[in-house]
Amino acid sequence: MRRFSWVNLLLLLAVLLLAVVPLxxxxxxxxxxxxxxxxxxxxxxxxxxxxxxxxxxxxxxxxSAELESxxxxxxxxxGAGLLGYCFGVARTRQRLRDAAGxxxx
Amino acid sequence: MHIAEGYLPPEQAAAWFVxxxxxxxxxxxxxxxxxxxxxxxxxxxxxxxxFTFALSALKIPSVTGSSSHPTGTGLGAVLFRxxxxxxxxxxxxxxxALLLAHGGLSTLGANIFSMAIVGPWVAYGSYRMVRRAGxxxxxxxFAAAALGSLATYGVTVAQLAxxxxxxxxxxxxxxxxxxxxFAVTQIPLAISEGLLTVLVVRLLSRxxxxxxxxxxxLRPAAEVRA
Lengths: 105, 226
Hints:
The structure holds 2 protein chains of 2 kinds. Chain A is mainly alpha-helical. Chain A is built from 3 helices and no strands. Chain A is elongated, with a radius of gyration of 23 Å. By secondary structure, chain B is mainly α. Chain B has one domain: Arp2/3 complex 21 kDa subunit ARPC3 (Orthogonal Bundle), CATH 1.10.1760. In chain B, strand 1 (60-61) and strand 2 form a beta hairpin. The chains are: A mainly alpha, B mainly alpha. Chains A and B meet through helix 1, helix 2 and helix 3 of A and helix 2, strand 1, strand 2, helix 4 and helix 7 of B.
């Protein structure tokens, strides 16, 4: 049990470290450090193909950067919430099974 | 890996829809079959969908000074095989196209092909290869999630290079250019994604051991620890 939790903790720490190191060492570059790679690709297309006209535009666009990040937060929250719910249900089921097993055995 | 709305020429956007459509149709059937044959697995299906939903919303800074996001499709591909992920990944991409103006409806076919089709298949293939070579569950899941993530971005690079060859150096130059934007950025993220997916599978092996045995991830009785 203890080794199990330790390994999980180390996995989480490694993920955090991988995200924090670029920030802590100030590796950000360009006008807007740490801008999204998707946006950079879009910019590269615009730069090299000035005559290209996007022929379709988003049906709905969040009116501000704040609202856009709100939607992203909503997406992450919904995903994490459902994932947490699933783990809660699975864990409870496991416990009930264990308890039933003990009673029988 | 989201190609922005309108940023593929109409013929190519349409071609990617044609390529992706059969996978999504087949995937929907596979999803329905999975739920009917094994209603108990609905909970894990929800978990796999939730995992990709949450992870693809997270923009994480990378060593190249830009940021990008994981795909989260490796978990579902390993648990339920890739066809199911073409549907779950497609739902995520549709949500982002409609509400976030991230990706787009016109580029949905292309984005589904990279994130919901090639990524999951590479993930599943990597998983099977590591397992067949005698690797444990942990290393196999790590390889699946990390390589699936890289493959997704590789496909995006190829799609963009095909659509926008460099004015001077053509498709090859464009491959290098878009590769420079996405590939190195994605390496630390792919590692993160691999580690996170291993973490989730480890937790699942504790809470849902029976399900993982039924899905073939754990051998009967033995190998309780990932």
